[in-house]
Amino acid sequence: MEKMKIAIGSDHAGFELKEKIISYLKKSGHDVTDEGCYSLERADYPDHAHKVAMDVLENKVIFGILMCGSGNGINMTANKHKGIRSALCWNHEIAALARQHNDANILTLPARYISEEEAYKCVDAFLKESFEGGRHADRVKKIDC
Question: Cys bridge to 96: 18, 72, 87, 125, which one at CB 3.0-4.6 A?
Answer without folding.
Answer: 125
